[in-house]
């Protein structure tokens, strides 16, 4: 039996496809995250006291209050960041730390290790960098494209302009701090790796058709539509989410001294987990929410329905100038009656299984079990 002589790593062929541990009770999301946080020491989110009590964040919060009552997207973004739900940013850093602990580390100075949590101080810093990059990207996406005449009311124009300033500055603040934290790790390969993440996030905003506010619209499918949905959806979401989590997982294994093969497995785990997560969120749009609410028109159920019947584009294309012109209730009803939801469930399951297979190369541990539980908690549709 051949094994890497690395802590917590098992690459015997039978281990690659080891069955997931049997869980007697389906994990609850909040419980899975709460238990996972205990394993790595404490909540991983950069929204901790040292950030919340900083002068810069206090000033942003003060200015943000002035936007209450306006329709600026930054308010919605801020709410989603604070809301302790399945889309919270805290879980991204948490996953980076869990994969760090599950894999262990090699030939590292004892001073570098957080012995209580079982991870390196540099790995915890990288987890914060991951969250900061993700959050800054979401905040920057909240910028409004102000064109002449779009806001005839002076008050509304002022609110939108002011909101843009806050979104731009706060997003830049987080991104610049992530660069500083990354530079402090003094690892050129890691800096190069994470810089490609920012490039991918930027590229994701220029993929496919867009309305005047840069909201995404599905591409026109080719005459042969087979495979259109998976290809389009995967491209968008690998660039906008998969590479960030994937390369963060790869980077944390690099910091731990693992070889290139193990690092690449870390990337595959993060990428597939991010895609499974996105498919899960896309499902939630059609299962847990009101049909009249707006949603991402490039979500997986819609993309699958377009592949099945592109006539739905007649309604979606009403949003070429603004997605607000789309009748979301009509789109919801059409998609709900088609194969899109079931195909998205299969897509989510496929990526969850691929992430689970990667976890099988690590020896059994509380961190690995916590990652299994987080994956399992996403499959409760």
UniProtKB/TrEMBL annotation:
UniProt key word Signal: no
One biological process term in Gene Ontology: isoprenoid biosynthetic process
Pfam family, one: polyprenyl_synt
Superkingdom as given in the UniProt entry: Eukaryota
A Gene Ontology molecular function term of the record: prenyltransferase activity
Annotated PANTHER family: ALL TRANS-POLYPRENYL-DIPHOSPHATE SYNTHASE PDSS2, GERANYLGERANYL PYROPHOSPHATE SYNTHASE
Name of the featured protein: Decaprenyl-diphosphate synthase subunit 2
Origin species: Vespula vulgaris (Yellow jacket)
């Amino acid at each position: 039996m051949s094994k890497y002589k690395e802590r917590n790593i098992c690459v015997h062929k039978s281990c690659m496809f080891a069955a997931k541990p049997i869980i007697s009770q389906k994990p609850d999301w909040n419980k899975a995250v709460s238990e996972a946080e205990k394993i790595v020491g404490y909540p991983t989110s950069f929204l901790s006291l040292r950030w919340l009590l900083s002068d810069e964040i206090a000033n942003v919060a003060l200015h943000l209050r002035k936007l209450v009552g306006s329709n600026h997207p930054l308010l919605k973004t801020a709410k989603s960041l604070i809301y302790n739900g399945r889309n919270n940013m805290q879980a991204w850093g948490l996953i980076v730390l869990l994969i760090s602990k599950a894999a262990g580390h090699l030939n590292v100075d004892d001073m570098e290790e957080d012995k209580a949590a079982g991870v390196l101080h540099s790995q915890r810093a990288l987890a914060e960098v991951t969250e900061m990059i993700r959050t800054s990207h979401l905040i920057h996406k909240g910028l409004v494209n102000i064109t002449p005449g779009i806001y005839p009311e002076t008050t509304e124009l002022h609110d939108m302009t002011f909101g843009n300033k806050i979104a731009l500055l706060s997003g830049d603040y987080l991104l610049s701090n992530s660069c500083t934290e990354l530079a402090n790790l003094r690892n050129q390969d890691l800096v190069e790796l994470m810089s490609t993440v920012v490039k991918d996030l930027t590229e994701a905003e220029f993929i496919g058709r867009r309305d005047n506010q840069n909201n995404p619209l599905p591409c026109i499918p080719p005459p042969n539509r087979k495979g259109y949905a998976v290809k389009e959806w995967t491209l968008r979401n690998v660039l906008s989410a998969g590479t960030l989590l994937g390369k963060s997982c790869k980077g944390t294994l690099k910091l731990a001294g693992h070889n290139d093969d193990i690092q690449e497995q870390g990337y595959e785990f993060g990428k597939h987990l991010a895609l499974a997560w996105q498919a899960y969120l896309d499902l939630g749009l059609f299962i847990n929410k009101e049909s009249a609410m707006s949603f991402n028109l490039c979500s997986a159920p819609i993309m699958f329905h377009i592949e099945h019947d592109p006539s739905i584009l007649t309604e979606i294309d009403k949003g070429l100038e603004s997605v607000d012109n789309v009748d979301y209730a009509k789109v919801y009803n059409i998609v709900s009656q088609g194969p899109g939801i079931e195909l998205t469930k299969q897509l989510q399951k496929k990526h969850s299984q691929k992430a689970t297979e990667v976890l099988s190369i690590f020896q059994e541990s509380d961190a690995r079990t916590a990652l299994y539980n987080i994956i399992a908690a996403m499959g409760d549709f």
